[in-house]
Amino acid sequence: NAGVTQTPKFRVLKTGQSMTLLCAQDMNHEYMYWYRQDPGMGLRLIHYSVGEGTTAKGEVPDGYNVSRLKKQNFLLGLESAAPSQTSVYFCASSSISRGNDNEQFFGPGTRLTVL
Amino acid sequence: LAKTTQPISMDSYEGQEVNITCSHNNIATNDYITWYQQFPSQGPRFIIQGYKTKVTNEVASLFIPADRKSSTLSLPRVSLSDTAVYYCLVGPYSSASKIIFGSGTRLSIRP
C-alpha cells in the first residue's frame, strides 16, 4: 500500500494564479483532511470530508475550496493564490472503524510558495 | 475544544528516558488524548492514544492521572532518531475533525 500520496511535492505560483493539489489514499478510509503548516507552527485544519461527496470547513477555510468526488481522492483548490498561502500543505486520512479512532495517516506534504 | 499546553522545547541524551507533559485543564468527558511525532519535512505520525490511566505500545507509554487534566508521554531510552516535534492533541472520539494541533514540543537528543 502506498498510503497517502500528494501531488505535486513542490510548486511556485505567482499571486493570482490558481492550482489544485491532489491527495490520494489507498486504505479505503472514510475521512480525509487538508492541513497547512506554517514555519515553526502546528498544523491548522483547512477543510475535511467525512465521505464521498461531502466536505466541511475547518479552522482556516478562506481562500480554499475542496472536492471529494471519489472516496480515495481529496482535492484542494486555490482559485487566486496569495502570498499568505505560502505554506506546506498536508493531506491526511482516517478510518472510523479502527481502534485508535483519532489516528490520522499523513501524506508527505506539498511545499507551496506564492510570489 | 480543549486547549493543550506543552513545553516549547526539551533536550536530552541518548539512552535516557524522556517525559513530555501536556496540560489540558478543560478536557471534556468524551475527549481522548493523542500524541503525534513529526520529523522535519514529513507529515506527523501517530504515536499513542489514551483515555485514562496508562497505555503502552512498542514505541511509548502514555500516563494519564485520574483527573485527566494532564498527560505525560514517556519515551524509553531515546536515540538520536527520536529528535522531532511531538504534538499533544485532545478531542472527542470519532470526531477527528475537531482535533487541534498546537505548536508542539521540539525534542532534541544529543549523543
By helix and strand content of chain B, what is the structural category?
mainly beta
User: How many DSSP H or I helices of chain A?
Assistant: 0
Number of strands of chain A: 11
What kind of assembly state do the chains in view correspond to? heterodimer
Mean pLDDT of chain A: 92
How many helices of chain B in DSSP terms?
0
Q: Order of strands across the widest beta sheet of chain B?
A: 1-9-8-3-4
Poorly predicted ranges of chain A (pLDDT <50, ≥5 residues)? none
Q: Strand count, sense and closure of the main sheet of chain A?
A: 7 strands, mixed
What can you tell me about this protein's structure?
The complex is a heterodimer of chains A (115) and B (111). Chain A has 115 residues and is mainly β. Chain A is 0% helix and 51% strand. Chain A is built from no helices and eleven strands. In chain A, strands 2, 4, 5, 6, 9, 10 and 11 form a seven-stranded mixed sheet that branches. A four-stranded antiparallel sheet of chain A has the order 1-3-8-7, with no helix packed on it. Chain A is globular. In chain B, 0% of the residues lie in helices and 49% in strands.
Spell out the key features of this protein.
heterodimer, A: globular, B: 111 residues, mainly beta, 4-stranded antiparallel beta sheet
Quick summary:
The complex is a heterodimer of chains A (115) and B (111). With 115 residues, chain A is an all-beta fold. Helices cover 0% and strands 51% of the residues of chain A.
